[in-house]
Amino acid sequence: MYNNILIPVALDQEHDTQASFEAARQLADADAVFTVIHVQEPIPAYVWSQIPSEVLANTRHEILENLHQTASEIPGAKARLISGHAGRAIVDFANESDADCIVLASHKPGFEDIFLGSTANRVVHHAKCSVHVIR
Asked: Which residues form the UspA domain (predicted)?
């Protein structure tokens, strides 16, 4: 069905990537390419300037290790760490990489989503490709 599948993941303990990975496998053509991405939100400059550079480097390294380990659950998947606002960055990356499908997990919407909107909501409304949201 799909040849170029993008799977955004959150790398915290509360999110389980298995449902997204399984859905992506089910939606994929035999020769599909999988890209697992994590979006690192930017740190405000006034905070950034107070954090030692080795702490920033170590944190980025740990995130990359965790991302590569997570992506290894899909044989041959590429892992990419990108920066920006999650919803916007996912849509931009999907467009730039010519993804034909995005498979992402969503949390149960809460009151704050009425005013701010969720990442999944932004992706669903702005992506140019198919989007499969997993709950």
From this structure: 1-135
